[in-house]
Write a structure and sequence with these properties.
Blueprint: E1 2-3, H1 19-32, H2 55-62, H3 66-73, H4 82-92, H5 96-106, H6 113-117, H7 124-131, E2 138-141, E3 147-150, H8 152-158, H9 171-177, H10 179-184, H11 188-205, H12 210-222, H13 224-230, E4 240-247, E5 251-262, E6 265-274, H14 280-291, H15 293-299
Antiparallel strand pairs: 1-3, 2-3, 2-6, 4-5, 5-6
Helix pairs in contact: 2-3, 2-4, 4-5, 5-11, 8-15, 9-11, 11-13, 12-13
Length: 304
């Protein structure tokens, strides 16, 4: 098993994200994606000057005054009630993840700076458990998409992260800044979108995290794709699904993933991958398991 050193990811601290601006843009983009006919309102198309619903239409659907909703969309979520947020979430047809994100932005919890800045630690027993997964790639991911610990099979499939500097053991940095990961993920666009959505949710929960701000700033400067996806303000959570990979040694892999959020630390998730029994992908995983560290070393000279 490998793990991130106790020191958190490197990167110069950045300015806190502007929570008011985040709230404003999130509501505006959610409103813009709805058409009047989507919510049973008449459409006077030629006379509409804005995409999606007007503020007054959204306020009507949520049962609040236009002035009240306007203040909220301008980023003033102070004293807004949970009931009003629920009504607005229903009017905007938000998903559960989007509803939670709206709540975090409008009614942020107070986090101590020490809690945000402290290194992320993984329980010893959990690290030991991951090591027992001889044929299952597994890792623990924390805030900011940091990869905290991983097992031998994860290294065989995704590359030996122990060879990376600590600050680069981060899904967002790898996906957007390392060309080999663009080759690894067959559906790279989907992986990139998923990563940005998770970072958006993280930003809603921890807008004052300087390392998160630094990460967003770095990726915004270095990746046009990141800038475009970040501007959409999309948020979603995926606890399971299928990832298609192109491995440099065994070729195409189709792996089912499961993500388990830890009960005692909701900022950490255990992620595992497995193949359909009897499939070509299952045989490929078996080969990678038998090669062990040799597979990792061989893959280090090729896209991982």
């Amino acid at each position: 098993m490998d793990e991130l050193p106790s020191q958190g990811p490197a990167g110069e601290p950045g300015l806190p994200l502007d929570r008011r601006a985040e709230l404003s843009e999130f509501l505006r983009t959610r409103r813009a994606r709805l058409k009047p006919e989507d919510v049973g309102l008449p459409d006077f198309g030629r006379h509409r000057r804005v995409p999606g619903l007007r503020r007054e239409e959204l306020a009507q659907l949520a049962g609040v005054s236009v002035a009240y909703y306007t203040r909220l969309e301008q980023g003033n979520g102070r004293n807004v009630s949970a009931e009003v947020l629920d009504a607005i979430a229903r009017a905007l047809r938000l998903s559960d993840a989007e509803h939670a994100h709206l709540t975090h932005l409008a009614k942020p919890k107070q986090h101590k700076k020490k809690q945000t800045a402290r290194p992320q630690q993984v329980r010893v027993a959990l690290r030991q458990l991951i090591d027992t997964f001889d044929s299952v790639p597994a890792y623990v991911v924390g805030r900011r998409s940091d990869i905290l610990v991983w097992n031998r099979m994860a290294a065989a499939v995704f590359g030996d992260w122990s060879e990376l500097p600590p600050q680069e053991r981060n899904w967002a940095r790898m996906v957007f800044l390392k060309p080999e990961y663009r080759e690894l993920f067959v559906e790279w666009d989907q992986k990139a979108s998923d990563i940005v959505s998770l970072l958006r949710m993280d930003a809603g929960c921890h807008p004052d995290d300087p390392r998160l701000s630094a990460l967003v700033g770095e990726l915004s400067v270095k990746s046009e794709e990141f800038r475009r996806l970040w501007a959409t303000h999309d948020v979603k959570e995926k606890s399971h699904g299928v990832k298609r990979l192109h491995h440099p040694l065994v070729g195409e892999l189709s792996l089912h993933f499961e993500s388990f959020r830890l009960v005692d630390d909701e900022e950490q998730s255990l992620v595992t991958y497995h193949a359909e029994p009897g499939s070509a992908s299952a045989e490929a995983l078996r080969l990678l398991a038998s090669w062990g560290t040799d597979a990792t070393r061989a893959g280090a000279t090729s896209p991982q």
